[in-house]
């Protein structure tokens, strides 16, 4: 029975009355299956179709309880519909063991729950609260939600959880996964810097790192291609004739459409068997596994609120314990045009539930022992952090950074007066694309001014000067906007200028920039007329502003913004106007 | 109707366990190169996980295509023909579809005529596919 059939049933009573149309997890999974089957029929791209089929396979498996740990199904099904009592324990932990008398039994019954004393990373010595959340995650047996608001050290927490798990269970198989490559890269890269060269041998990144600069350059060795090359070389040194024979006879993979060599599946699966800690995106997880593969003891899903239900269910299905790390106050999954069309076959409430994801609902309903929130942010300067904390996290965040780069530490408006000028164009035959040339010009002018200011600062800063701004250090700048057309226009305009001497500039949409950060953020509002529902969505503004470490420039028409009665926009209007250009 | 009037059918073979294909080939090649003990085999094939080698070896032994004697592994000569068949060499036969479909004795007879001594064992590793050859002309 799907939620559509439920809609025509008598009104539900008691605690489920407040729920949207989809009544329980199975119904919601069925909605997903309906949607995915529709998508498979709609899409012409073979690879995309394979991706959807894979998601269907894992969802069906989960629906019938053919995943690794049935407690996951019970827990998720229970807390999908019901909020936990204040003192409720996690399912499966109702029996209390006396740890003094039954140590060995306790360990057998709860092999993935660890009582942890001291942190491995020294940063947790000063952030006791964050370490308590890590301890809670480690003490949990089956599933744990860790909410990490922007800059609160989600990656650090992931690394600590892995290091502690390895300390307590040295042979644990661990999966690090996420919807995006960047999140997997960051976690694995950071982890490598805590491991010795000997321990690095247990790590595998499939298929490869996508970030351009790694914190630890040696991490490149954990890429699947490097691992495969090392194995063939090892074999060639031991048994050259046999290795040459096998090299010719066995499938060696092929180049993909981007011209990169793809390893053959048989080799990938053998590599996965031989490595303990594996980093891979949710959708590529199936490349590594077949019926002969060993299950994982722990799966960590980073940016889980950005992943769709099938994506994080895929990771959950192959592990004994799962830790979901994310922030439901940030953006939910994105759906492309084709996916949006397929969603239209569902009712409004079903569509909304699929679009928004169920992470927030699960998080709210989970018992205290199975969830935690990191509350100290290490990214933003206090004025940016306070805005984020007050508007999106009930003033619960504390801030640790005080010193910025010393040059650009504003949180201010770069506005303009728009006379006879509107975006999108309201009259005439102009295409109604969301491109705002005025904002492009304002941003370019400011970037040029920044370069001049940095050049002057470089001349002034002496070697013995204790200034915060480091000579020669390039500032990172993110130019982000809610709209793709404006993003492309900004990219084109910035590419025409050379700022590379003092700035590292990234241009992207807000949705795509989630998970990254920059010293300075330009946020281009684009619109000068029309509704604000899309760009002023709390979650989108949260992501946009919280990408900044030191400085936020709000580039928009302040008169237009003032016309809206949206709380978050009103809060932004309190910040000073740094410049006001005239645009005709 | 004479035999020549019957449109021929094409018989092809493929590995029953596609995910173990490389393991079978690697084990057989390694043993033929003389790496026939547990230690030498594992050292010669670092590209494979021990678990997958064991699973593949289990199947080969169950199919009576591999034998262990005094700690040494031998591979049956049938494996050479099986490997060639699985590589996709089709057999065009003057038979009817219905004759070949679900007819293990006939399939055994065909495999015997190809030189395989243990057709039942070979069918543990291989699966067959019969299709009609369509004359485009």
How would you describe this structure in keywords?
heterodimer, A: 6-stranded parallel β-sheet, 24 helices, 17 strands, globular, B: 137 residues, alpha+beta, 3-stranded antiparallel β-sheet, two-stranded antiparallel sheet, 18% strand
Structural class of chain A: alpha/beta
Largest sheet of chain A: 7 strands, parallel
Give the overall shape of chain B, derived from the CA principal axes: elongated
Q: Rg of chain A from C-alpha positions?
A: 26 Å
Describe the structure concisely.
The complex is a heterodimer of chains A (584) and B (137). Helix content of chain A is 42%, strand content 15%. Chain A is built from 24 helices and 17 strands.
Question: Overview of this structure, please?
Answer:
The complex is a heterodimer of chains A (584) and B (137). With 584 residues, chain A is of the alpha/beta class. Chain A contains 24 helices and 17 strands. In chain A, the strands form 4 sheets. In chain A, strands 3-6-2-7-8-1-9 form a 7-stranded parallel β-sheet, sandwiched between helices. The longest helix of chain A is centred in the C-terminal third of the chain and has 24 residues, at 437-460. Chain B is elongated. Chain B has helices at 21-32, 38-44, 50-62, 78-86, 97-100, 104-113, 119-125, and strands at 9-15, 66-69, 72-75, 91-93, 126-132. Chain B is built from 7 helices and 5 strands; from the N terminus they run βαααββαβαααβ. With 137 residues, chain B is α+β, with helices and mostly antiparallel strands. In chain B, the strands form 2 sheets. A 3-stranded antiparallel β-sheet of chain B has the order 4-1-5. In chain B, strands 2-3 form a two-stranded antiparallel ribbon. Chains A and B meet through helix 10, helix 11 and helix 12 of A and helix 1 and helix 3 of B.
């Amino acid at each position: 029975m799907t939620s559509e059939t439920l809609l025509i049933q008598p009104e539900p009573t008691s605690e489920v009355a407040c729920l949207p149309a989809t009544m329980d997890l199975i119904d919601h999974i069925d909605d997903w299956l309906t949607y995915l089957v529709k998508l498979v029929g709609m899409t012409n791209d073979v690879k995309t179709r394979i991706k959807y089929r894979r998601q269907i396979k894992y969802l069906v498996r989960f629906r019938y309880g053919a995943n690794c740990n049935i407690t996951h199904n019970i827990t998720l099904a229970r807390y999908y519909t019901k909020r936990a009592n204040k003192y409720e324990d996690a399912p499966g932990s109702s029996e209390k063991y006396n740890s003094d008398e039954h140590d060995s039994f306790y360990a057998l019954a709860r092999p993935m729950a660890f009582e942890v004393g001291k942190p491995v990373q020294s940063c947790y010595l000063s952030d006791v609260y964050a370490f308590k959340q890590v301890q809670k995650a480690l003490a949990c047996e089956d599933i744990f939600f860790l909410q990490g608001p922007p800059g609160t050290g989600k990656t650090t927490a992931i690394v600590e959880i892995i290091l502690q798990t390895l300390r307590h269970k040295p042979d644990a198989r661990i999966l690090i996964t996420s919807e995006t490559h960047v999140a997997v890269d960051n976690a694995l890269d950071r982890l490598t810097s805590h491991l010795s060269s000997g321990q690095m041998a247990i790590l595998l990144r499939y298929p490869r790192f996508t970030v351009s600069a790694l914190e630890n350059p040696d991490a490149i060795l954990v890429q699947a291609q490097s691992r495969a090359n090392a194995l063939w070389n090892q074999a060639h040194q031991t048994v050259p004739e046999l290795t040459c024979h096998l090299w010719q006879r066995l499938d060696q993979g092929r180049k993909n459409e981007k011209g990169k060599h793809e390893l053959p599946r048989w080799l990938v699966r053998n590599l996965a068997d031989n490595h303990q800690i594996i980093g891979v995106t949710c959708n590529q997880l199936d490349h590594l596994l077949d019926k002969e593969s060993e299950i994982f003891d722990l799966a960590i899903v980073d940016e889980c609120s950005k992943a769709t239900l099938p994506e994080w269910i895929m990771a959950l299905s192959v592990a004994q314990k799962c830790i979901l790390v994310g922030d439901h106050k940030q953006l939910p999954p994105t759906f492309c045009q084709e996916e949006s069309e397929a969603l239209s076959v569902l009712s409004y409430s079903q569509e909304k539930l699929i679009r928004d994801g169920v992470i927030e609902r699960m998080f709210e309903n989970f018992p205290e022992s199975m969830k935690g929130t990191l509350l100290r942010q290490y990214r933003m300067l206090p004025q940016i952090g306070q805005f984020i904390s007050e508007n999106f996290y009930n003033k619960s965040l504390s801030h640790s950074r005080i010193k910025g780069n010393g040059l650009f530490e504003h949180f201010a408006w770069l506005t303009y007066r728009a006379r006879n000028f509107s975006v999108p164009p309201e009259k005439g035959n102009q295409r109604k694309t969301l491109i705002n040339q005025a904002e492009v010009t304002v941003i370019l002018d400011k970037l040029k001014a920044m370069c001049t200011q940095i050049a002057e600062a470089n001349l002034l800063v002496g070697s013995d000067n204790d200034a915060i701004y480091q000579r020669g250090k390039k500032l990172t700048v993110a130019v982000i906007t809610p709209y793709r057309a404006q993003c492309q226009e900004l990219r084109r305009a910035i590419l025409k200028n050379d700022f590379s001497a003092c700035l590292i500039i990234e241009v992207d949409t807000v949705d795509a920039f989630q998970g990254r950060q920059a010293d300075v953020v330009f946020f281009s509002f684009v619109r000068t007329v029309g509704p604000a529902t899309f760009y002023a969505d709390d979650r989108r503004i949260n992501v946009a502003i919280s990408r900044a470490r030191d400085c936020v420039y709000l580039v928009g028409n302040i008169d237009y913004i003032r016309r809206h009665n949206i709380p978050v926009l009103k809060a932004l209007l309190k910040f000073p106007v740094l410049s006001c250009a005239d645009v005709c | 109707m004479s035999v020549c009037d019957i449109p021929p059918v094409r018989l092809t073979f493929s590995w029953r366990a596609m995910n173990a294909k490389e393991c079978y080939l690697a084990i057989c090649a390694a043993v033929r190169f003389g790496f026939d003990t547990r230690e030498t085999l594992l050292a010669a094939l670092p590209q494979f996980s021990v678990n997958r080698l064991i699973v593949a070896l289990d199947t080969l032994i169950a199919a009576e295509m591999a034998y262990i004697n005094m700690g040494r592994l031998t591979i049956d000569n049938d494996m050479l023909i099986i490997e060639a068949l699985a590589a996709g060499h089709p057999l065009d036969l003057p038979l009817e579809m219905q004759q070949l479909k679900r007819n293990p004795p006939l399939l055994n007879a065909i495999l015997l005529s190809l030189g395989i001594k243990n057709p039942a064992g070979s069918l543990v590793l291989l699966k067959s596919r019969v299709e009609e050859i369509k004359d485009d002309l």
